[in-house]
Structures are given as structure tokens and as C-alpha cells.
Amino acid sequence: MTVIEQSHDDFVRLTGPYRRELLTHCYRMLGSVQDAEDLVQETYLRAWRSYQDFEGRASLRTWLYRIATNACLNALRHGNRRVLPAGLGGPATDPIALAPRDPEIPWLEPIPDEQADPAAIVAGRAGLRLALIAALQHLPPRQRTVLILRDVLAWPAEEAADALGLTPAAVHSTLQRARARLDRLEPAIDEITEPAEPEQRDLLDRYADAFERADMVALTRLLTEDAVWQMPPNPSWFAGRDNVIRLLSARLRTKRNQLVAVRANGQPGFAMYRDGEAFAIQVITLRGPAVAAVTSFHDSALVQRFGLPPQI
Q1: Helical packing angle, 157-164 and 60-77, nearest 10°
Q2: N or C: which end of the chain has fewer CB atoms below 10 A?
Q3: Please, are residues 31 and 135 in contact by the beta-carbon 8 Å criterion?
């Protein structure tokens, strides 16, 4: 084995364990799994090219995060932020006159739990929730980065400063601005409380049963009064239980709908099949014993990204 081959083997062995957490980090930054995968590939390519010069003054993990973060910041300078319908304007009220689908808008994407960093799911689901990822996209890139490193990943200020080439004082002031802005954007992120596992499973079973049967009475009982329903790439979204029920009543009774349980962003969800064809991925937000929000991504390709067939 040549020196280069040995060096490459060492590189793969030492850096490989960080791939999933780097993917999760890039996803938080960009709001797109596909873009995150591309940036992780770029990160490893850059890291390999610089590996011979790595002197170990920072940890290997910090070094990789620095490369990934800079790659993300560069990508953000040349692209538009990812959004959900609620980030574009006020809610709709007419379920019949929906706005046309707009695939040109850079929509936020869900991340399957199987692709995300397991530690992010087990240790702190709030750091991966769809509402947080959507809110992060509204922060300026530098504020977004500092908040992710400090509050989501719990890095010390000195380590975050080293990764970003800033002083600890600059990291602190940037973090304060990011926190204040995030509180205005999504003040209730940390207040969401999910039911315990048995109650959650029962609630989701009842939701799936009511949805598949288009039982509006049962769905009404399962939704919170301020429930929100979004369905990108359609810009229209609905707020309030009565408006959501009017939407579902108009749309569910004309097709045969089936739900298959999945998990995304550390949250429960369902792959939705319409007349046997893959149709959408629903990400469910639970609050107490009820469903507080459903983001239904109307993209059949997403269903296959969750490892499910295009037809059932």
C-alpha cells in the first residue's frame, strides 16, 4: 500500500463517523436535503485536499464543521432561502379557490429521521423540528450559523469562534441578535409538548383512521383550535380548526387516501398515497393530546426518498 493510499484510508476511517451529523448541520443551514448532501460531498472533497496540511490545532470535528459551514455560507450567498407557505403571506380561507402550485419557489424540505444525525433526534428533537428549520431560514446566514453552533449543537463560544474565524465577543453579540430575531419569528418552538409514546401512538392511529375515512367529525376532535395546515408547493395555507376542516372536507372525499407511518425532522409523519399513487409526505406537530399542525409536502418523489414505493 502506498503512502497516499494509507493516508486516504486513515482519512475515511477518521472522518466517516461525522458524515450524518454534517449532513444534519448542512440541512439546518440550507433547508434542503439534496443541497445538504451536495455540500457534504463538497466538504469531504475539500477536507481530503487539505488533509495533509491538517495540523490538529483544532479537533477533526471542528475542522470539518468549519469547512462545511464555509461551504454552506458560500452557497447561501448565491441562493434564495427555503420557505414554507406560512412564511410568504397570510392564510387562505377558501378551500376551493387555492393558489396554483408554484414549483419555482425554493420550498423547505423535510429530512427523514433515517438520514439525520441520531444524536440530533435522541438528544434534542427541538433542534431538528420543522418549525425551527423554517424559522432559521429567515435569519441572516451568519446569525443562523452562530445560533446553530451555540444553541442547537451547544458548542462553547470559543469553539464556535474558532470554526467561524470570529472572536468569542463577536460570537456572543451575533448570538444575542439571532435569539431575539428567532423569538419574534417562532416564539413557541420550545413550548411544544408531545404526549408520551403510548398516547402519541394512539393519537396518530386515530388521526390516520379519520383521515383515510374522511371522517370530519373525528378530525375535528383531533385538531387544536388554532391548527395550521400547509401543503407546499401550493402557497395557500390554512389556520384555525374550522378552516382546516373545510379544506379537508373539500379535498378528501373525492379520492381514496392511505397513510403509511414515517418519521421526519424528529417528528411523527405519514407518507400519503392517493388512489394508490405516492402523493405527499405529512409532517405532524403534536401539542398535548391533539394535532397542532400538519405540513403536507405534495411531492411524490419525497415518498420514495423515505424508502417507500411509488405505488401501493
Answers
A1: 60
A2: N
A3: no
Dist. CA 91–CA 89, nearest whole Å: 7
Query: Rounded to an integer, what distance in angstroms lies between the CA atom of residue 212 and that of residue 208?
Result: 6
Which distant-in-sequence residues (6+ apart) come within 8 Å of 154 by Cβ?
A: none
So what's the pLDDT on residue 125?
53
- The whole-angstrom separation of Cα 86 and Cα 64 is 34
- H or E element, residue 270: strand 267-274
Neighbours of 97 (CB within 10 A): 8
Question: 282: domain range?
Answer: 197-305
Choose one of 168, 189, 210: the last residue of a domain. Answer: 189
Contact 147, 179 (CB under 8 A): yes
Task: Tell me the backbone φ, ψ of residue 256, rounded to 5 degrees.
Answer: -90, 115
For the stretch 297-308, pLDDT in tens is 999 999 999 999
Handedness of CA 92, 97, 101, 105 (dihedral sign): negative
Q: Which helix (H) or strand (E) holds 27?
A: helix 19-30
CATH of the domain at 207: 3.10.450.50
Taking the C-alpha atoms of residue 247 and residue 66, their distance in angstroms, rounded to an integer, is 45
pTM summary value: 0.91
Cβ(109)–Cβ(28) below 8 Å = no
Q: Is 310 inside a domain boundary?
A: no
**28 and 85, same domain (yes or no):** yes
Distance CA 13, CA 10 (A): 5
Question: Cell triple for residue 131?
Answer: 418549525
